[in-house]
Backbone:
């Protein structure tokens, strides 16, 4: 009888494995195909990240310039009220507008007071600012302030010291 128990046991194990394999084999195939898909997606993601990094670097390398076409500059008419309205719409102070346009705060103040009219190159900046939103203006301002701080001459160390 001992042999019969072993035969039954072996047969039950064989049938159980057969049933498990019926279920597991399609799952194994699915897992393999999913692993391939994940691998392909990872490769695509790496490629897309590299492309995005290259594109971002190219955009950063381009110097932030606020310019307009000569036709737009000729057509543009600026009143003191319009200059102030542009500044208010973009939520900029006179100093920030001066930084963006490359002039002094006094020049912006005089533009808004109507004492002076911006020259053509500064009109180009104002025409370009008309087309921007607050976020873009802030982005240009941050890039300009970074440029300005890196171009500033360093102060002499002895300047703050008093003579004895």
Residues:
């Amino acid at each position: 009888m001992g042999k019969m128990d072993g035969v039954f046991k072996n047969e039950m194990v064989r049938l159980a494995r057969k049933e498990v394999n019926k279920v597991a084999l399609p799952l194994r195939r699915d897992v393999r195909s999913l692993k391939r898909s994940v691998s392909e997606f990872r490769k695509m993601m790496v490629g897309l990240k590299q492309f995005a990094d290259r594109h971002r670097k190219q955009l950063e390398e381009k110097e932030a310039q606020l310019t307009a076409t000569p036709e737009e500059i000729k057509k543009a008419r600026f009143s003191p009220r319009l200059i102030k309205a542009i500044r208010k719409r973009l939520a900029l102070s006179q100093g920030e507008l001066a930084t963006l346009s490359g002039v002094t705060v006094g020049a912006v103040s005089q533009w808004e007071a109507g004492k002076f009219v911006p020259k053509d190159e500064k009109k180009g900046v104002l025409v370009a600012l008309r087309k921007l939103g607050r976020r873009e203006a802030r982005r240009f301002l941050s890039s300009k302030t970074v440029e300005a701080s890196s171009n500033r001459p360093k102060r002499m160390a002895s300047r703050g010291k008093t003579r004895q």
About this structure: The CA atoms of residues 53 and 59 lie 10 Å apart.
